[in-house]
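Subject: design request, 141 residues
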């Protein structure tokens, strides 16, 4: 995932996460990226310096958290570990496999993988319950 600094034609600045440059371009072209402040679909990427992830930076981030936040982060880490340990990784076939399971065409089991924004909306519209796994600081290494 790539974090982009974005701005709309009304001067509002915000951030967005995308799989890659092409993913942003596709969504922006289809007017799926909108400003959270004014809902303008005229959104552009802002110039930004690359974020280099270091263990020191992660330590500083965690050090700035309250005890409740650190505990919540650890709970999220444990949930993510359990899902990855006990579910099947299906990669970019997540949407297809979720549908097969939902409609009884494949064995019911826990799965995880990647899905496009459009696939996520389709699955939810079909009544298929899904939940994104959070991206944790250590996932970027």
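Subject: RE: design request

Done. Sequence follows.
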């Amino acid at each position: 995932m790539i974090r982009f600094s974005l701005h709309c034609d009304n001067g509002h600045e915000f951030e967005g996460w995308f799989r890659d440059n092409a993913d942003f371009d596709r969504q922006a072209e289809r007017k799926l990226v909108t400003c959270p402040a004014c809902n303008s679909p005229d959104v552009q990427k802002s110039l930004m310096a690359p974020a280099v992830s270091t263990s020191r930076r992660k330590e500083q981030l965690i050090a700035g958290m309250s005890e409740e936040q650190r505990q919540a982060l650890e709970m999220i880490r444990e949930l993510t570990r359990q899902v990855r340990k006990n579910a099947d990784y299906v990669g970019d076939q997540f949407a297809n496999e979720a549908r097969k399971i939902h409609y009884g065409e494949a064995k019911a089991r826990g799965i995880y993988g990647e899905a496009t924004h459009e696939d996520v909306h389709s699955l939810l519209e079909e009544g298929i319950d899904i939940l994104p796994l959070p991206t944790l600081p250590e996932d970027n290494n």
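The longest strand covers residues 2-8.
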